[in-house]
Design a protein that fits this description.
By secondary structure, the protein is of the alpha+beta class. The protein has helices spanning about 1-30, 35-85, 100-135, 150-160, 170-175, 175-190, 230-265, 275-305, 315-335, 355-370, 415-420, 430-440, and strands spanning about 135-140, 145-150, 195-200, 205-215, 220-230, 310-315, 335-340, 350, 375-385, 385-395, 440-445, 455-460. Helices cover about 55% and strands about 15% of the residues. Strand 9 and strand 10 form a beta hairpin.
């Protein structure tokens, strides 16, 4: 079939050439023909035949050549559109000859390329989605230490100097010297490079990286995965500090109890003048130890979510008067005025009643401990949108600015010596913060040394008791 198509085309070409040759021969005959009257008539007829032969032969040759060149031209245009990544339908050459088979093969190649391109674009989109949603930073660096790929987490963790990092050198984009050194070590060796370093920038971050050399010779580059270890290291530090503080807080009353008990055992029990004093001191230290354990258990239950709360509508004014009654005698003994500022309208919160009572008790007890004689402690409340702000203000010694960020941490004390003398466990404010968060609120403090402190707890306002 293929041979037949080409045979007909070649036959048409040969026919055209024969027609042209016949025309040329006719012209030569006419040139030698005698110029008589009858000959002139024959000559004109021969000229007409020659012109007709030239026309027929030229047309046949033009048609055959066009039939052979047009598919090649369209195939060439189609291939150029593919190389230029322009949209194209399919190759237009048809038939069962070589050009038709070539057009069909090119069309199949176009469909395969389009399918593979769609697959690659889909894979690229999924890869970009995965990389952008990762909290770990991913960085790909070429053998010349130029950045090939970086996700958003890596840009933020290393604080890139420019948003267009791809193609730039690693040194010009980030000041993290440890990353550059890890890339060099990974390119030089075969084992992954693991290290931890402090990232440069305004925010202090502790990052851990793992640099892995990509397989292949020559090496195509290095992939770096960054993990933000800041919060983990902070929690580890807090845990170590907590263990040390708990050990110290438990050791102090236990040592006192052991010392007093040993004194009594060595003969002081028969000292009628001092033996009751030692017994009372043992009782005080035991009470302190018991309160410390209760506070620690309460914080643990609140943090783990195991403590069950009985949420309900609570009148703030009623809680203020209960707290006033609880500490009125202690305040009078310290010569401190304990006052309540009446809110302009009744305020209700939605929380656990015992939890709110614990919050107010810890704040008032803290204010009485650190307020000198002649001062005062004030309880007040005000509404602010969907929240009720409970405030306990005192005219005590105040808190330095450097301590405000850590004042709600467990066992954190501004003046450790004085806190121990006053008998605090160092957990009261931490309990306040955790209870407020469990009720959907917050705890904060404003203070200046020598001018007193204001502790503020926000709790959700009761929707049923809200004023119109």
């Amino acid at each position: 079939m293929v041979f037949g198509n080409w045979f007909y085309r070649l036959f048409a070409v040969f026919a055209g050439l024969i027609a042209l040759q016949a025309a040329v021969a006719t012209g030569l005959v006419i040139a030698k023909w005698p110029s008589s009257g009858a000959a002139a008539t024959v000559t004109s007829q021969l000229w007409a035949l020659a012109v007709l032969s030239i026309g027929v032969g030229g047309t046949a040759i033009w048609f055959c050549v066009r039939q052979m060149t047009q598919p090649l031209t369209e195939l060439s245009r189609f291939v150029r559109s593919l190389s230029a990544d322009e949209p194209a339908s399919t190759a237009t050459a048809s038939g069962s000859d070589e050009l038709g088979l070539l057009a069909a093969a090119v069309s199949r190649m176009q469909r395969d390329l389009a399918q593979r391109r769609d697959q690659m674009e889909g894979h690229s989109d999924r890869l970009q989605t995965v990389l952008s949603s990762m909290t770990e930073g991913v960085l790909a660096v070429g053998p010349d230490k130029s950045i090939l790929l970086a996700n958003e987490a890596a840009r933020q963790q290393l604080e890139f100097a420019t948003p267009d990092a791809e193609g730039r050198s690693l040194v010009s984009v980030t000041r993290a010297r440890a990353v550059n050194e890890a890339v060099g070590q990974a390119l030089a060796g075969t084992a992954p490079v693991v290290r931890e370093f402090d990232a440069p920038g305004s925010a202090r971050r502790r990052l851990a990286l793992r640099a892995t050399r990509l397989p292949g010779e020559p090496c195509p580059g290095v992939v770096i995965v960054l993990h933000d270890m800041t919060e983990i290291r902070r929690l580890e530090s807090l845990r170590r500090e907590l263990v040390a503080n708990v050990s110290h807080e438990l050791k102090t009353p236990l040592a006192a109890i052991k010392g007093y008990a040993e004194t009594l055992r060595l003969g002081a029990i028969n000292d009628q003048q001092h033996n009751l004093h030692f017994v009372r001191r043992i009782e005080e230290q035991a009470d302190r130890l018991h309160q410390l354990i209760l506070d620690m258990l309460q914080i643990a239950r609140v943090e783990s979510g195991q403590q069950t709360f009985d949420f309900g509508d609570i009148a703030v004014e009623s809680m203020f008067y209960q707290c006033h009654s609880q500490f009125a005698e202690s305040a009078a003994a310290r010569q401190i005025e304990l006052k309540i500022e009446q809110p302009p309208q009744p305020l209700w919160v939605y929380a656990d009643e015992e939890g709110v009572r614990t919050i107010l008790s810890n704040l008032v007890d803290n204010g009485l401990k650190y307020t000198p004689a002649g001062g005062h402690v004030l309880l007040r409340a005000r509404g602010e949108g969907g929240l009720v702000l409970l405030e306990v203000s005192d005219t005590g010694v105040g808190i330095g600015e450097q301590h405000l960020d850590r004042i709600f941490e467990r066992f954190y004390r501004v003046d450790k010596a004085r806190s121990s003398e006053l008998g605090g466990t160092g957990l009261g404010l931490s309990i306040v913060k955790h209870l407020a968060q469990a009720f959907g609120g917050t705890a904060s403090v404003e203070s200046q040394p020598g001018r007193g402190s204001t502790f503020r707890v926000s709790l959700p306002r009761s929707a049923k008791k809200a004023m119109p």
